[in-house]
Specification:
Elements lengths: L3 E6 L10 H16 L2 E8 L2 H6 L1 H5 L4 E5 L28 H13 L4 E5 L14 E5 L4 H11 L3 H22 L4 E4 L2 H11 L4 E3 L20 E5 L5 H21 L4 E5 L5 H4 L6 E5 L13 E4 L9 H9 L3 E3 L16 E2 L3 H13 L1 H18 L2 H19 L1
Helix pairs in contact: 1-13, 5-6, 8-11, 10-12
Length: 401
């Protein structure tokens, strides 16, 4: 059987794998390549230096790589004119002349059985005349994220700005996804939302996949009381969640356990948080290996109030044996049970109580840890997710024949 030729277009360079979307995409690509059923060309922004540094990791995901010069990051004040664009603020900068030229050239030079666009943002790079099977790999219902920010933003002007962006994203998301042969969602919930909100009949769900070998299990730690959070701290949903936890939850925890430590692990924490020097709170910034910074924790917290898609960090923590406490939004879209695999807690008092319970109760930590690892092993390894993704690719090819 001939391998299917796949072009995979991502608006972000996948390395280092320091954000949930990058991790999820990397796991899928690695699983597809390991299956031997696909010949993969990966296209994304990358400097020559990045390509040289990460060539070994790139080779694990694809047969060949096509890169283009990435945009230089803009400071926030220089992004103000982007608010006037008809495109959502987080999409505007993805359509650069270099990106458009590289994608159009690669897709014109070779015939692919299916072209995958990673994240809905990448739809701005789709050539108008592209024929054949196309798939959009959505990591969130982006409109929902904007709408949640519009509800939780701290001031009326910010709520207005988020609402305006939500309207733009609703229009962009609906129009963009309608053009694809198939749309991949990261949960059944997201797939149903696309159908309900946009009338989309082509959405298919995949499970969230975790590298079970890399995130090996060990019993949850005893010893000093440590609470951890992981996530990119340049993503607004994470910033909002950890700010809420530090302001509203952490004082309640420290009042009961004065020596408790909160470790926030993730790139680019904002100065508005790091310069406050809150007692017991440490920001690591970017780390090479997250495992080295979480193994000693009694509780892994996901205090998100906004967000979309699924949080791969939850399954990574469960795979490692870390007891998880999460808000409803933090665990949204994941098929896990409160009291069996994790503790659900919404609101400051409930989050504090759940955190304190995990710190105090070693038997509960071990019970949650074992049950969660068993679940992830049985249903959420990265190869399982890649197998479902592969079936959707084949379905798209057959539907467009």
């Amino acid at each position: 059987m001939n391998r299917l030729k796949v072009a995979f277009v991502s608006p972000v360079f996948l390395f280092p794998a320091d954000a949930g979307g990058k991790i999820r995409t990397g796991n899928i690509l690695r699983g597809l390549k390991e299956s031997g059923q696909f010949d993969i060309t990966l296209l994304s922004p990358a400097t020559p230096e990045q390509q040289r540094e990460w060539q070994g990791e790139i080779d694990r995901l694809c047969e060949r790589f096509v890169g283009w010069q990435p945009n230089s990051p803009k400071p926030r004040w220089k992004r103000a004119p982007d608010l006037l664009s008809s495109l959502p603020i987080n999409v505007v900068n993805d359509r650069t002349p270099a990106a458009v030229a590289a994608v159009e050239k690669a897709l014109a030079a070779e015939r692919f059985d299916v072209v995958v666009f990673d994240f809905v943002h990448a739809a701005v790079l789709r050539p108008d005349q592209l024929q054949g099977a196309t798939v959009c790999f959505t990591h969130n219902v982006e409109t929902e994220i904007f709408e949640r920010h519009a509800k939780t933003a701290a001031s009326a002007p910010l709520r207005w700005l988020w609402a305006a962006q939500a309207a733009k994203m609703r229009r962009f998301e609906r129009e963009a996804l309608a053009r694809f042969t198939r749309v991949v969602a990261v949960s059944e919930r997201d797939a149903k939302m696309f159908e309900k909100n946009d009338g989309l009949k082509t959405a298919r769900a995949i499970p969230t996949g975790v590298d079970l070998d890399f995130f090996s299990w060990q019993p949850p730690a005893d010893g000093s009381p440590v609470v951890v959070f992981t996530g990119s701290m340049d993503w607004e949903a994470n910033v909002d969640g950890i700010r809420f936890y530090i302001d509203e939850v952490w004082p309640r925890v420290r009042s009961q356990i004065p020596n408790a430590q909160l470790r926030v692990v993730g790139r680019h924490p904002p100065a508005s948080l790091t310069q406050r020097n809150v007692p017991g709170v440490t920001f690591t910034g970017f780390v090479d290996d997250v495992r080295d910074h979480v193994r000693d924790a009694q509780a892994f917290v996901i205090p998100l109030r906004v967000g979309g898609g699924t949080r791969i960090k939850a399954f990574e923590a469960m795979a490692m044996g870390l007891p998880v406490v999460s808000t409803t939004i933090g665990i949204e879209g994941l098929d896990v049970d409160h009291g069996t695999h994790f503790l659900r807690a919404d609101g400051a008092e409930a989050l504090a109580d759940a955190t304190l319970k995990l710190i105090a109760d070693g038997a509960l930590r071990l019970k949650l840890s074992r049950a969660a690892r068993e679940l992830v092993e049985a249903r959420f390894g990265h190869r399982v997710a890649a197998e479902v993704f592969a079936c959707i690719l084949v379905e798209a090819v057959e539907a467009s024949a």
